[in-house]
Amino acid sequence: MAYLLEILPSLLNGLQSTLGVFFVTLIGSIPLGILVSLGLRSEFFTIRWLLNGYIWIMRGTPLLLQLIFIYYGLGMMGISFPRFEAAVIAFIINYAAYLAEIFRGGLQSVPKGQYDAAKVLGFNKIQTFFKIILPQVIKIVVPSVGNEVINLVKDTSLVYVIGLGDILRAGNIAASRDVTLVPYLLVGLLYLLMTAIVTLVLRNSEKRLNIWR
Amino acid sequence: MLELKNLTKQYDTNMIFKNLNLTVPDGEVLSIVGPSGIGKTTLLKIVAGLETANAGEMFLDNKAVSVSEERNTADIGLIFQDFNLFPNYTVLDNVMLAPITVQKMAKDQAKKLARELLHSLGLSDKEKLFPYQLSGGQKQRVAIARALAMQPQILAYDEPTSGLDEQSTYQVAEIIKDLKKEECDAIGDYTR
Ligand SMILES: Nc1ncnc2c1ncn2[C@@H]1O[C@H](COP(=O)(O)OP(=O)(O)OP(=O)(O)O)[C@@H](O)[C@H]1O
Ligand SMILES: [Mg+2]
């Protein structure tokens, strides 16, 4: 017990970085993903082609590699970011690609009649999107977005590779210094706690969205 | 008053109608009757600005309205064959949303207007329900209220009596008759 209290401060310190990457990624990747999904429906072939290429690269290569590329690779080319910034840039552009595919599916499942109804009532495109289409898309995508958010909790541990002091790194340092497995167990528990909270929040929003069908 | 002159519509090589002419004078109800697939919905969609025509002219109170471009204006209300209510809004919000969003009407005023319309259509006790909780005839009446809330000059009504029992058909007929009094012209289509 005393040992737990001894290592807890350093783990909580690491937790701050983990949560930082988590929240900044969420806040950045959701709007970007929505924008990309709208761009995928653009009438301009070049835009669709570029965005499809972006999604293909992001989903077709490991996030770990993207992280290394942005921190070390770009660094070698003279474009260097601090660790945290590099991490969130890599995470945001990676997650936005996955979310864009999910939003694209959601957009496709809103019937054309909804756009027609908005149009004859005089709604412009922006009003139609925010008042009528987006709320319906959100309801459709919440379960799949939820999966991605849970993946994100665990994926944040990848920042280890660029030396960002996250919770896993804090646990690792303590474990090798004190030659014990306890820090790893504690780290595991903290991840479980985070995913449990995310799951609860998701269940709750699904329930609230279920008042209409 | 609505006038259509030499309206022509084709989908690819499929000619739906050619050189169609019609006039709906103020306060009149015009019914368009014909078998399924003849182009009734297509015509109403062109009038409401959801579809373009290949040729022809349209005049609303003697003002030319383009039929070669789609429009998002509320001057012509359309009640859809399958209603297209907004599933994510309550009955009351379905009716209030356009006046608030499009006409920038104050919320209280929009609510009052929506309640009056719902009351006149016998839906006062349904205002808090969502569309999925309504019967077909109730959905249809919400669609009428939603269209009327924007005070359209013309109300285009697709299949006003399809899927309704005798009682509801009678109610809808009464509503359309009342519209005439309120200086809103109506055109409707019926499958025969
Ligand atoms: N978007 C479209 N593309 C190609 N053809 C279409 C399109 N919409 C309708 N049509 C065709 O136009 C014709 C008229 O369709 P419309 O929906 O206007 O018929 P309707 O008279 O309303 O029939 P119903 O009484 O069954 O509702 C049909 O043959 C249909 O296949
Ligand atoms: Mg039809």
Automatic annotation (TrEMBL), chain A:
The keyword Protein biosynthesis does not apply. It is a multi-pass membrane protein. InterPro entries: AA_ABC_transptr_permease_3TM, ArtM/GltK/GlnP/TcyL/YhdX-like, MetI-like, MetI-like_sf. The chain crosses the membrane at residues 20-41, 53-74, 86-103, 181-202. It is found in: Cell membrane. GO terms for cellular component: ATP-binding cassette (ABC) transporter complex. GO terms for molecular function: transmembrane transporter activity. GO terms for biological process: amino acid transport. Residues 15-202 form the ABC transmembrane type-1 domain. Keywords: Amino-acid transport, Cell membrane, Membrane, Transmembrane, Transmembrane helix, Transport. Pfam families: BPD_transp_1 (PF00528). It comes from the Bacteria. Belongs to the binding-protein-dependent transport system permease family. This is ABC transmembrane type-1 domain-containing protein. The lineage of its organism: Bacteria, Bacillati, Bacillota, Bacilli, Lactobacillales.
